[in-house]
C-alpha cells in the first residue's frame, strides 16, 4: 500500500509538471482571440517544488511535453498508471483531453475536445492511425492518419457545459502531413442526439473542404478550411443553438465522413466548439426547445 502511495505522489508531480508546461506553451502560442480559463488557477509554488526547471527540459521552453515524457522524467511508464484502492478496486489515471477557454472580446465560453476524446473509426488500429506527440498541440497526443478508406470522425458534447442562449459552431482542428493522399473533402453532419438518427442527419449533410482557398483570394464561405495561429487549420462542421443552461437540449454530435478513396496524412488535434454570430443559414435548433416555444 505504501508503494502505491509513493507512486501516486510521483504521478501527481508528473501531471503538475505537464500542466505547467502546457500553460506556458499556451501563453506563447495560442490564438490571440482566446485566453485559457485555467492559466490563473494553477498554484505556481507547486511547480517550483518539481524536479526540473522549464528551460532545462529537453530544450523545449515553449512547448508542452507529452504525458508520457513528463511521466518518464519521474520514473513512470504509461502502462503503470493503474492503482489498487483498498486492495480490490482498480483505478486508471488518464489526463484530461478537454480544454475550456473564453473569447477575449465577448467573454463567452469555448470548448476544445482533444483527439483522444473523439470517436474515430479504426482509431485504435495502429495500421490505420498513429497517436503521437506534436509540439504545436495543447494536448498530449494527436491522431495521424496512416492509411484508411473510411474516414469517420465524431465529437459529442453535452449542451449544458456550453454558454446558454448562444449559437455555437463546431470546427475540426487539423493539419495535413507532408506525405498525404486523398485528403480533399468530406460530408459534414450535425444533430441533436435525441432528435435525429444518423440517417436523418445525413440528409442535411454538407460538403467541407480540407484545403484553404488559393492565396490572394478571400472567402467567407462555410466549409472551406482556414489557417489558425500555431500551424493548424480549421474547417467548420456545422452550427447549433443552445437554448438554456440546464442541459434541456441534450447532446450534440458533429461528424465528418468520407468513404470514397484511400486517405493518408490527416493529423487531427481535436474539435473546437465556440460561439459565433456569423452563419449563412439557420442554426440547428433542438426539437425540445421548439416544443417549449410552441406550448409555452
Multimeric state = single chain
Helix content: 10-25%
Q: What is the succession of H and E elements?
A: HEHHEEEEEEEEEEHEEEEEH
Outline = globular
- CA(first)-CA(last) distance: 58 Å
Q: Which regions are unreliable across 5 or more consecutive residues at pLDDT < 50?
A: 27-96
Structural class: alpha+beta
What's the short version?
Helix content is 18%, strand content 36%. The chain is built from five helices and 16 strands.
Note down, in words, how this protein is organized.
The structure is a single chain. The chain has 296 residues and is an alpha+beta fold. Strand 13 and strand 14 form a beta hairpin. The longest helix has 28 residues. The protein starts with a helix and ends with a helix. About 24% of the residues have low confidence.
List the defining traits of the structure above.
296 residues; alpha+beta; two-stranded antiparallel ribbon; 5 helices; globular
Furnish the topology, listing elements before pairings.
Blueprint: H1 2-29, E1 34-36, H2 44-48, H3 67-73, E2 82-85, E3 89-92, E4 98-103, E5 109-114, E6 119-120, E7 129-132, E8 142-145, E9 151-158, E10 166-181, E11 185-192, H4 198-202, E12 206-212, E13 224-227, E14 233-242, E15 251-258, E16 264-275, H5 287-295
Parallel strand pairs: 12-13
Antiparallel strand pairs: 1-4, 2-3, 4-5, 5-16, 6-9, 7-8, 8-16, 9-15, 10-14, 10-16, 11-12, 11-15, 13-14
Helix pairs in contact: 1-3
Amino acid at each position: 500500500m505504501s508503494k502505491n502511495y509513493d507512486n501516486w505522489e510521483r504521478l501527481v508531480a508528473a501531471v503538475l509538471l505537464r500542466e505547467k508546461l502546457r500553460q506556458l506553451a499556451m501563453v506563447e502560442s495560442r490564438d490571440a482571440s482566446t485566453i485559457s480559463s485555467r492559466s490563473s488557477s494553477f498554484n505556481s509554488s507547486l511547480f517550483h517544488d518539481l524536479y526540473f526547471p522549464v528551460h532545462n527540459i529537453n530544450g523545449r521552453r515553449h512547448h508542452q511535453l507529452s504525458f508520457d515524457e513528463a511521466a518518464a522524467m519521474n520514473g513512470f511508464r504509461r502502462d503503470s498508471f493503474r492503482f489498487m484502492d483498498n486492495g480490490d478496486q482498480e483505478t486508471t489515471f488518464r489526463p484530461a483531453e478537454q480544454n475550456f477557454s473564453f473569447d477575449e472580446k465577448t467573454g463567452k465560453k469555448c470548448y476544445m475536445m482533444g483527439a483522444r476524446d473523439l470517436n474515430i473509426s479504426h482509431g485504435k488500429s495502429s495500421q490505420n492511425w498513429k497517436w503521437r506527440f506534436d509540439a504545436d498541440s495543447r494536448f498530449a497526443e494527436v491522431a495521424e492518419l496512416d492509411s484508411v478508406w473510411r474516414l469517420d470522425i465524431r465529437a459529442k458534447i453535452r449542451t449544458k457545459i456550453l454558454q446558454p442562449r448562444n449559437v455555437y459552431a463546431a470546427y475540426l482542428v487539423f493539419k495535413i502531413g507532408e506525405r498525404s493522399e486523398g485528403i480533399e473533402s468530406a460530408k459534414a453532419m450535425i444533430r441533436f442526439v435525441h432528435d435525429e438518427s444518423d440517417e436523418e442527419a445525413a440528409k442535411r449533410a454538407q460538403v467541407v473542404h480540407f484545403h484553404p482557398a488559393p492565396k490572394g483570394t478571400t472567402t467567407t464561405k462555410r466549409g472551406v478550411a482556414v489557417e489558425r495561429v500555431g500551424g493548424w487549420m480549421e474547417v467548420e462542421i456545422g452550427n447549433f443553438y443552445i437554448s438554456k443552461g440546464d442541459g434541456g437540449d441534450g447532446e450534440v454530435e458533429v461528424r465528418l465522413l468520407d468513404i470514397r478513396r484511400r486517405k493518408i496524412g490527416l493529423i487531427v488535434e481535436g474539435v473546437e466548439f465556440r460561439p459565433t454570430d456569423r452563419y449563412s443559414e439557420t442554426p440547428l435548433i433542438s426539437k425540445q426547445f421548439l416544443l417549449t416555444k410552441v406550448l409555452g
